[in-house]
Amino acid sequence: MSETALDVRDLRVAYRTARGPLWAVDGVDLQVHPGESLGLVGESGCGKSSLGRALMELMPPGGVVRGSARIAGQEVVGASGSALRHLRGEEVALIFQEPMSRLNPLMRVSDHFVEAIRAHRPKVAKEKARSMGREALAQMGIPPTRVDNYPHEFSGGMRQRIMIAMGIVLRPRLIIADEPTTSLDVIVEAQILDILDRLRRDEQMGMILITHNLGIVAETCDRVLVMYAGKVVEQGTVEQVFNTPKHPYTRGLMASTISLETTELHSIDGYPPDLVSPPPGCRFAPRCPYRMDHCTDAVPEYAEPEPGQLAACYLYPGAGAPVPDDAPQPGSMEPSR
Amino acid sequence: MSRLRRRLEHAWRPFRRSSRTSRVLIFVGLGIATFFVLVAFVGPTVYRYSGVQYRVEVAPEEFESLPQLAPPDDEHPFGTTRDNFDVLARVIGGAQLALSVMILAVAFGMVIGVSLGLASGYRGGRLDRVLVTGMDAVYAFPPLLLAIIVSFLLAAYIEPGVLSAAGAVGLVYIPQYFRVVRNHTLSVKEEPFVEAARSLGAKERTILGRYVFFNVVQSVPVILTLNAADAILTLAALGFLGYGVQPPTPEWGYDISQAQSDVASGVWWTAFWPGVAIVLLVTGLTLLGEGLNDVINPLLRARGAAGREIGEPPGDEDQSDRDADAQRDAEPIDSGAENR
Amino acid sequence: MEGSSLRRYLVVRVLLTLPMLLILLTLVFLLLRVAPGDPITASVGARLPPEEVQERRAALGFDDPLYVQYGRYLAGAVTGDFGNPVTDRRDVVEIVLDTAPATFELSVVGFLVAVIVGISVGAVAGRLRDTPFDVTGRLFGIVIYATPIFWIGLLAQLYFSVNLGWFPSSGRVGGFDAPQDITGFYVLDSIITGDWTALGSTLHHLVLPGVTLGLVIGGIFVRLVRVNMLQTLRADYVEAARARGVRERNVVFRHAFRNALVPIVTVMGLQLALLLGGAILTETVFSWPGLGTAIVEFIGSRDYPAVQGIVTFIAVVIAVISLLIDVVNGLVDPRVRY
């Protein structure tokens, strides 16, 4: 079955604000195949979390989703209430950032499982649902006897594992993990990432890992998408994007990561643009050290400087404007470390 | 001068961001309260009768009584009472009393409650424990009963009047201020910016005065307006039971108690108008409090409540289109009805 | 393992109630001793010769030092001796037994009405935030709370009693319909003795005062329930439940509403004190022979011992209710237990 786990076309997400609609995601295309892990990176406010939520139409009041997102072939955007409910939990699971507050403090863990399972399979007996829950917990490395405990009796790392267990108990095709380890310490983080990795390989689940931590993307993902100001500026395999970043923003990101060899700290000057009235043309142009005059004319299309690696930048042929002769060459743009 | 302006602008910001409902609430509440202030202080000079007047001087040394239990008419728009008082005059007089007692009571309760709350929250330790248990005990006590007992006791030392009523009513609310201010102080105390200030060498007094106080004081206006509303109700209840000011001073609650015997014979205006006044004033103050609460308490602010329904995003091919759209005057393409 | 944590919690709560009780009692004692003079002089001083007044004072222990009186007071409270009024032949305990059931029945009805109004209007208003229902519901809650209980009671009497004649305007029960006095709770007594006329008459008399009291308190509850619903509806676990595909109906009820109940129940319990204040006013308007009327009468006749005794009883009741609330909290919310 070569059906993609996730197929997104021209996805747009907006929030209602006093100053007008804020387009947090402005035209994103992406695909995730079964068993593939896709990293979604960018700084705070680039739209990656909104994208993750939008894939399940889990918007706050005043938020809208436009475009198309198909999970295992079923359309999410504009789907009916019951169709959405079927998708959520059964075809796609969302792992949230703060495990501490994601479980109802008044309900036992087993109650959570029973509720989640019976919401999709009402015919399943309570006892069966509980044993499914115990199995899922065991897969996560939590003693199944603890299924009757209350959430406050677990640590943060264990709660996140419980959340993952609940997410996969019905074997969804797609897992969306939104900063799943940001609030956890590094040892627990490694365990969680391990679990997620194992799951997607054993169960052939597609996975989107949303994070601002480039390190874990490098470790666990096959492909990566870099987002900026609501748009995808670069995508490709992890090796391509991390070793030979093409878009100036990605280069800036890579240059600002710290390793043992770092002698100088780099950052990107300036701030992300206002998404209620974004700047014309390439949104990174105001901060781009390689900015050319025509960069602010129109939004660049996706150039393909290398097979499989896309970058929305006028420095490369195919972005919608001819590359000037005096444009900086990719080779001369190696960041100094 | 510009620093003042900036401070004011900063204070004004939550109002600018607030939803329309809260602004309406505040506006209406403030309007009603102002109306009553006007009635209380302008009324007596404008209206021909006074609240304690039961007769008119038709000629030097010659008096004619006002009619008794007269239904509302041109001469007495709200009717008259069993004691030949003009009801409208009594309502106006009652407004004056209610507002005076309310201001005194609220000031009293606030000053004591807030200072104790600050001290208790900031110092902690034994003082805190004692105060908290004490305040909790008082808070658990039926407020009306407490007010009755206190006003009753005060009446032995002070002339029963505005001061004693204000004291009784104000005292009852001290635990509320205390509790809210103390809790807020506790959480502010742990904030990083306080620690930062301390590590920069700021004096304890500065920290308390400038950092903690200004933060904590945010929670006071809401309690203040709700306290004011409650004060009016408590005063009326005390008056109804006979523990308020001395007759014949006009007091809404007292007038209603006097009207009890009128009700059986179908006389409605002696009980009705004072009650309406109470409902109106208390509603106004509560609306003000709710509006302030919505504005100041961001937790309750609705996400996505402000702004228009969203249509298609502006097309990003055409620069000129974007310029036009930047004015945000154009209607979104597939928007529904404008609802915010 | 769960059983013992609940048990430990209960034991600790009971122990913690004692200091609260102590403070309440001390408060009552101080308040009523602060009054100038002494109760005897105040209540009968004008009518009796000074020597007799002095005799009575000494006999009742008012000449003893303050701390002795305090000790005697506390001992009395513990053993159930709340003192004797000056103007009444019954002792305080008898007065309480005579009048408390009436207040209790009234309060129960009032509380039920308030809870029903508060939860139904408040929960729906919270769910349908900012819709016309929400706005009307909030307004209703505010205006109702702004209405003095005694005024609504009076107008209700005027309209439903005098005008329409649907309900009686005073008293607990029709003239000769009182049930046999077993517990003092008329509803209970009439059911026990199978006296259906009495039951009907009692319930009939309970409607007007009960609804009056309940509506006003209900106004407070509307705001309380609404605010808590709003807070729980935006909780993280609510969003997580939605993300698992749980039906919206279940999300609202099982996650938002049920969790909102925890703080709601606590605050509602605390409002029981408010209920008593309202009961005093309601009883006065409807000539209801309860504790409130008794207190008002004794205050009127300056009978301090009686007032002190009754208020002491009330203080004990408050402490017990406080304890009960904590117990319920412990049963419902597993995080609270030790």
What is the makeup of the main sheet of chain C? none
Query: Shape of chain A, please?
Result: globular
**Beta fraction of chain C:** under 5%
Main β sheet profile of chain A: 8 strands, mixed
Alpha-beta content class of chain A? alpha/beta
**Rg measurement of chain A, Å:** 21 Å
Question: Low-confidence spans of chain A: pLDDT under 50, at least 5 residues?
Answer: 332-337
Q: How many angstroms separate the termini of chain C? A: 12 Å
Helix count, DSSP H or I runs of 4 or more residues of chain C = 14
Strand neighbour order, sheet with most strands of chain A: 6-7-8-3-9-10-12-11
Order of helices and strands of chain A: EEEHEEHEHHHEHEHEEHHEE
Q: Globular, elongated, flat, extended or rod-shaped: what is the shape of chain C?
A: globular
Rg of chain C is 24 Å
Interface with most residues: B-C, 56 and 53 residues
The total count of strands of chain A amounts to: 12
Report on the architecture of this protein.
- The complex is a heterotrimer of chains A (337), B (340) and C (338).
- With 337 residues, chain A is of the alpha/beta class.
- Chain A has helices at residues 48-54, 81-90, 109-120, 126-139, 156-168, 186-202, 214-220, 238-243, 248-256; strands spanning 6-17, 20-32, 37-41, 63-71, 74-75, 92-95, 174-178, 206-211, 223-228, 231-237, 303-306, 309-311.
- The radius of gyration of chain A is 21 Å and the shape is globular.
- Chain B is built from 12 helices and 2 strands; from the N terminus they run H-H-E-E-H-H-H-H-H-H-H-H-H-H.
- In chain C, 76% of the residues lie in helices and 0% in strands.
- In chain C, helix 13 runs antiparallel to helix 14 (304-332).
- Chain C starts with a helix and ends in a 6-residue tail after the last helix.
- Classes of the chains: A alpha/beta (337), B mainly alpha (340), C mainly alpha (338).
